[in-house]
Amino acid sequence: MTPEIAKLFGKNEARKLRTAAELYFFQCLKNGKNAVANGTLPGEIEGQIARCLHSGFAENDIDTILHQAWRMAQERRIARRKVFVVASLTHGRLALPYVKFALRFLGERGCEILSEHNGADHPVKKFLEKVNAPAAQGPDLHNIFRDNDNRWVRECGLLVAELSEPSLGVGGEWENCRLKPELGSFLTPMLGVYLADKKVSPYVTGVTEEEKSYIWFRPYLTEEDLTSILSEFLDEFG
How far apart are CA 212 and CA 192, in angstroms? Predict the structure, then answer.
C-alpha cells in the first residue's frame, strides 16, 4: 500500500466504504455472482459512496477504494478456509476441552487449521514439530512463536479466539488480525467466544460500528452452543 493510499484509507468514510464493499465483493465471489450487476451496487455501498463524495473525496478516490476492496476480496476468497484458532497457552487452560472441540469441528467442516498446537495437551512440543524447530529454546523459541503466529495471522481468512482467560499473546494476535486492513491486507472475519460466566477485556470487545459486521463475540456454555456459533460463522464468512 503506497503512502498516498494509506493516507486515504486512514479517513473514516474511506474505511467504512472499503469495509462494506469488501464484504459485498467477497460474498459475490463466494456465490459466483457478478459484483456489479447492471452497473449498480447495493444501497448501503452507494450510500457510503455518496457520503465520501460529500466529504470531499474525488471520483478517482472512490475508484481506488473500490479497486482495493475488490482486490482484497479476491485474496480472502483464496484464504477463506484457512483458520487461525487462538487460545491461551500460559494460564489454567480452563477452556481447553472446548478449544479441542472447536478444532475438530472446524477440521470436519473442511477448514485448514493453522494452529493445531493451541488445542494440544503439550502445545509447545506440538508447535515445534509443526515448524520443524525441535531444539529451539529461550529467546529463540519466543521469537519463533511470535514470527510464526504473526505469519499465520497474515495468512488466515478467518480467526477464532477463545477469550475466557486473559492472555497477552491472544490479545496481540487478536489486534494484529483486526488491523490487517490498515496494514494493506484483506479484512478477516473474527469470532471471539468465551464461557458465559467470564468477562472479556473492553480493549478486545471495543470495535467500530463497521467492524461489528465481521467481528463477532459470542458466549457459550456447551459444545452444542459452540456448534451453533461456529456453524453460523462459517456459513456467513467461510
Answer: 12
Q: Which amino acid is at 1?
A: M
CA dihedral of 13, 18, 19, 21, whole degrees rounded to 10: 120
d(CA 82, CA 94): 25
Q: Determine the number of helices (DSSP H) and then strands (DSSP E) in the chain.
A: 10, 5
pLDDT at 2 over 60: no
Q: Where are the alpha helices (DSSP H) in 32-137?
A: 43-54, 59-79, 96-108, 123-131
The count of residues in the chain is: 238
Between 8 and 169, the higher pLDDT residue: 169
DSSP string, 131-178: HT-TT--HHHHHHHHHHHHHHHHHH-SEEEEE-SS--HHHHHHHHHHH
Q: Decide if 114 contacts 152 (C-beta within 8 A).
A: yes
Q: What is the pLDDT of residue 119?
A: 86
State how far the alpha carbon of 227 is from the alpha carbons of 88, 91, 97, 205, 237, in Å.
Answer: 21, 25, 14, 22, 15
Taking only the tens place, the pLDDT of each residue in 61-78 is: 999 999 999 999 999 999
* Cα angle, residue 171 at apex, residues 230 and 235 outer, rounded to 5°: 15
- Report yes or no: 53 and 47 within 8 Å, Cβ to Cβ: no
- Encode pLDDT of 134-186 as tens digits: 665 666 677 887 888 899 999 999 999 999 998 888 999 999 999 999 888 99
- Spatial separation of the C-alpha atoms in residues 211 and 19, rounded to whole Å: 8
Q: 116: buried, middle or exposed (CB in 10 Å: 19+, 13-18, 0-12)? A: middle
Q: Does the pLDDT value for residue 1 go beyond 60?
A: no
